[in-house]
Design goal:
This protein is mainly beta and 288 residues long. The protein is built from 3 helices and 20 strands. A 7-stranded mixed barrel has the order 12-19-16-17-14-13-20. The protein has a 6-stranded antiparallel sheet with strand order 7-6-9-4-1-11, with no helix packed on it. The protein has a 5-stranded antiparallel sheet with strand order 2-3-10-5-8, with helices on one face.
Length: 288
């Protein structure tokens, strides 16, 4: 049950796209509801661990430009994921380690210096109303809390007893994204030459990538057959090929069904790097 007795987090600067995320809501695809959740699940779990939260506690996910928030009670916070400068009331503080933020102080997360998505965890977590068991925002369906706007408030949870943890090593943003690939279920819709191209050519991350999918730039994949197939279920990591022939790797806010052929699937465990790959990063697909 959500309560404001534990304090509120006020949004001072929302940034380009800041959302509430947790471990997501898997298990609802048969009803057309995607999983959402933190794109860089590794970074989100690590941030929560450092402030003493459960691994799937709700936190903030920023995109490129960071954000600024102000708690109305003292809180321990950590900023991780994309590397950036962090300040409390204008004073530089540690990135990637627990920081004590006084009541009324502004925690300012600067633009990403490395990577794309930052994670702000607060001791006790964030407690907007859950939807289907999750507090995550799903940008495709509109389920969950809306992306942050200036003046928004979010309820803070009750912090567990005990000192914050740290320091820990954080994975860096990839300079090259190597994605293992399991072919299928529709690889037969592509020529042999296209399949060789997919696993040998160098693609790059498109600036049009988002939480729905990592879009690529590079050689188009030639189809072996024309026409389209009826909509079928899509999974996290599916590599869908639209009419322009450029592979799209589905991420957490992907649609649950689609009518373009899926040439292969990238395992979920390999997708964390996709969350932090900046536009222009080299992408290679390798047979798993």
């Amino acid at each position: 049950m959500t309560s404001e007795r534990n304090g509120l987090l006020h949004v001072v600067r929302p940034g380009a796209l800041t959302t509430v995320q947790d471990a997501g809501r898997p298990g609802w695809a048969h009803l057309g509801v995607g999983r959402a959740g933190a794109l860089d699940a590794t970074a989100a779990r690590l941030a929560n661990r450092l402030v003493g939260n459960a691994p799937g506690a709700a936190l903030l996910e920023t995109t490129v430009t960071g954000c600024a928030v102000r708690p109305d009670r003292p809180v321990v916070a950590v900023v991780g994921g994309a590397g950036c400068r962090v300040r409390v009331d204008g004073r530089p503080v540690a990135w990637g380690a627990p920081v004590r933020v006084p009541a009324g102080a502004v925690l300012d997360v600067g633009p990403a210096l490395t990577g794309v998505r930052g994670y702000l965890a607060f001791a006790g977590g964030l407690e907007p109303e859950p939807v289907l068991g999750s507090r995550s925002a799903d940008l495709l369906s509109g389920i969950g809390p809306a992306p942050l706007s200036e003046g928004d408030t979010l309820p803070l949870g009750e912090a567990a007893d005990g000192p914050p943890q740290g320091p820990v090593p954080w994975p860096g943003a990839p300079t090259e994204l190597v994605l293992p690939l399991h072919l299928g279920p529709r690889h037969s819709w592509f020529t042999d030459a296209a399949l060789r191209t997919l696993t040998t050519a160098a693609y790059r991350v498109s600036p049009h990538s988002n939480r729905i999918g990592l879009r690529t730039e590079g050689p188009a994949l030639e189809r072996a057959r024309g026409g389209e197939l009826p909509s079928e279920g899509m999974v996290l990591g599916a590599i869908q090929v639209p009419p322009d022939g450029l592979p799209v790797v589905f991420l957490n806010d992907h649609p649950t069904t689609g009518g373009y052929p899926v040439v292969g699937v990238v395992p979920e465990t390999a997708l964390a790097g996709a969350a932090q790959a900046v536009p222009g990063t080299r992408v290679r697909f390798v047979r798993a």
